[in-house]
Amino acid sequence: MPPKKDPDASVSVPCFYGAELRYRREQAGLTLEQLVEGSYRGLSFLSQIERGERGMPVDLARHVDQKLGTDGFFERRCEDVAKARNVGHPLYYADVPDLEKQAVTLEEWAPNAFPGLLQTEACMRGLMRYGAPLASPETVEKNVRARLARAKLWGREDRPTYWGILRESLIRNTPLPPAVMAEQLEHILNVIQSTQSVLQIVPETSPWHPLMHGMAKIMTFADAPPLVWTEGDFDGQIVDFPALVQGYRRSYDLLRAAALPLEASLALVEEAARNYRDEARQGD
């Protein structure tokens, strides 16, 4: 058996945090199995935190502090680690990138903007220019890098099963240039088809449907209860109360029924991409 490799605490704040967790656990004479016992999380989850690969959720931090007798250290510092892991994201969004990585299934309803996981770099910059015109170039660059880092999820073998629903008006009515929109729609098609994901479009002929008033991201996990992420212009929240999560689940399923089938949805996106590409060529 190869020698056990210690995490390099100098690499990053999450690695420092994970190395300290492992040190405290071993000082207490506990295995990973013994430390995670009694929590809502799995063994591999804790192991990845020790390696600096995942963030520490507050519920697990409290559990660890209690079992190790660390006087709240890991709970106090888990928010700092989340900030370090998610430079370029607003503080209220700090936990979401890690949750996306951990998810078994990821279902999104995006009525007003393309989901960050599906955006091209040009689209990101355009949306930030229109949505946050006073943001500094440095802030824009941080945001773009952070969003591109999230999209690396598509290259993982253990990526979540993805199901996205978009509103047709998002495709038809846009301030973005035709070339940017063509590239964006072609990118979405490539991601959906290459990852065996699902995309549906709610047509403009269905103006009334569930979840009319905002986006929703439903995430399920192998070793934790499902969550819903909702977001507005300047804030967002994680919904974990079971009755509310179930309400979102039912509404999302009804929204699927109101949307076009998969093949018709992809055909609509393909046609729009061709039209934007033709418009871009005519403008050259």
Automatic annotation (TrEMBL):
InterPro entries, per database record: Cro/C1-type_HTH (IPR001387), DUF5753 (IPR043917), Lambda_DNA-bd_dom_sf (IPR010982)
Residues covered by the HTH cro/C1-type domain: 21-54
Entry superkingdom: Bacteria
The name this protein goes by in its record: Transcriptional regulator with XRE-family HTH domain
Species this protein is from: Streptomyces griseochromogenes
